[in-house]
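Board work, copied verbatim: Formimidoylglutamate deiminase
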Amino acid sequence: MQWHAQFAWLGDAVASDVLIEADGERITRVAPGVPAPPGAARLPGLTLPGLANAHSHAFHRVLRSRAQAHSGTFWTWRDQMYKAAARLDPDSYRTLATAVYAEMALAGISCVGEFHYLHHRPDGAPYDEPNAMGEALIAAASDAGIRITLLDTCYLAGGIGRPLTGPQLRFGDGTVGDWARRVGGLRDRTDKAGRPHARVGAAIHSVRAVPREQLGAVAAWAKENEAPLHVHLSEQPAENEECEEAYGMTPTRLLAESGALGALTTAVHATHLTAEDIGLLGGTRTGVCMCPTTERDLADGVGPARDLADAGSPVSLGSDQHAVIDLFEEARAVELDERLRTRRRGHWTAGDLLAAATSNGHYGLGWPEAGRIEPGAYADLVSVALDSVRTAGAAPGHVAEAAVFAATAADVRHVVVSGRQIVCDGRHLLVDDVPAALTAAIEAITAEEPA
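↓ predict structure ↓
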C-alpha cells in the first residue's frame, strides 16, 4: 500500500511530499520530497502517526453533560460515576465502548489504554466467564478498528483500611492472588487467540485501593510478564493526606518502596507532588500521563508536567473521563496550563507535544513499535486538515504548530490503523453513524434516570 502525504511529521521535523509505503500492518519505506506516484492514496494536510490515548475509562463517557450540570468536587463527581458503573453488563459495555472507541478513531486515536476495573457483577459475584467485561472491551476495540492495551486494574479496598462497599464491590477480586490469576488467564487467552490488536497490562487503581502489603505483588506480576503498569497517583490532596497519615510517606514514596516505579510504569495525573516525588518518578524513568481536560473538569489542579519531564519522566496524554475526546486539546493544554501556572510562555515545542500524543503514549502502553512514521513502525497515519477555519492560513514552516495549537478532533480527515483505513473524509468506515451509536448506547444505560 502507498500513501502520499502533503506534509508529514517525521519525529523531528515536518517534511513535504512524503511517500509512505507499507507491507501489511508495517511501514516499509518513507521518502520525503517524492512526487505522488499513480495509485497512491492522497493524504492532504499534515499527516501524523496514530495518536495514543494513554488513559481511558470508557464508561465515563456516559457522564458527559451530566457531570457538568452539577457543582461540587472530585468526590461528589465520583458518586455519579459509581451510579453509571452499576448499570453496565458485558453486552451494554461492549456496545458503549464500541461507540466510544469509534469516537476516538474519528479523533485520530489508533490505540487506547483502557484502565479497566469493572470486573464483576454489581454485587461482586464473578460472571460465568470471569473476564467477560474485559473481553467486551477488547472486542469493542476490534469493532472500532483501533488497538487496545487493557490495563486490568487491581482494586481491593474502598480506601486505606476500609472494605469495598456498594458499587465498588464489582471492582474487587478479594486478594491480589485472585486478581493475578484472573488477569493472567485473560493475558494468556489474548496472546493465544490471534488478537493482534490487543495487549493486556496491569494497573494499581491507587494507593487507596490496594493495601500496602499487596502493592509489591502487582508490581512483581507486571515485571514478570514485561507488561505495562499504570497507577492513579496523587490526583487529590486528600489521597496524599490519607497516605501520609496511614504510612508516614507520600503515595509516590510508597510506590517506590513497593517496587512499582520504573520505565514500564506510568503514573496517571501526578498532580500534587513534592520535590522528592518528582525526583523519584524522574529518576526511575517512570512515565507520567497528563489528562488536562479531566483534571480541570474535576477541579483536580495543574500537575508539574515540565518539572517531571525535566527530571526524566516521559509525558503522555489521556482523555480519562472523556469530558471531550480530543488529544490536540490535551496536548496544547499541557503548555497552556503551564503558562497559567508560571505566567511564562513556551515551555513545550509543538514537537514535544506531538511526541506526548504519539510515541510516548504508545511506549507507555506497551507498543514501542508504534507512534512514529518510519520503516518498521505500525502503519498508523492520521491526516489533519490545514484548510479548516481553525487551521487555514498556517505560516509556511509552522504547520505542526497549527495542528497542536489550533486544530481539534474535528479537523481529522483520514485515519489508517495497522495499514487499514478506518476513517475516510471524517467518516468512520466500520461503525455507521457514530453519533447515533453513542446516543443509543448512552440512552440504554441511563434510561431509568430521573428527567
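Residues 2-49+377-434 form a domain with the Urease, subunit C; domain 1 fold (CATH 2.30.40.10).
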